[in-house]
Amino acid sequence: LMLLLCCCCCCCCCCACVCACVRGCGVLCVCVSLFPSLFNTKCHVQNGKALKKREDDYLLWNKLGATLANSNHSKEALQPYYQSLSLKPTYTRARANLGISYLNLEMYEEAATTFLQCLALQPSARHLWMSLHTVFSRMNRDDLLEKSLSYDIELFRSDFQF
Prior knowledge:
Layout: E1 4-6, E2 12-13, E3 28-30, H1 36-53, H2 58-70, H3 74-87, H4 92-104, H5 108-121, H6 126-138, H7 142-148
Antiparallel strand pairs: 1-2, 1-3
Helix pairs in contact: 1-2, 2-3, 2-4, 3-4, 4-5, 5-6, 6-7
């Protein structure tokens, strides 16, 4: 059994005999952990081809960012996330992915601000609070970490612009 990833929509399939993803997008490629060079090249190319046809598709821009970030190209992933958010500013998945890329790039202020922006849209999203805890921990900011345990974004208005 292999884990496969659709190059167009990034949905996962776990059967090697599947020749198209469940959404009918088309080509699947073997997951990152098995053949990273295949993943990097083929998925990036497929996303690029799809974007030429649908350049105003905020989901596709986010998927390109995720493809880049998942192949250890967090810096290159920023621009597709920005494009996704310029098309749909309330798209929290792209904003959360952007925060993760900032975190991976050790851009902690930007990561914290981005996660707080997400939390302003989805205040009960525990995974976002956990990401924010990670940022504050990496910043060695026990004061902010303590505040975050209250799960109240209003406490951060004086520390961050979001």
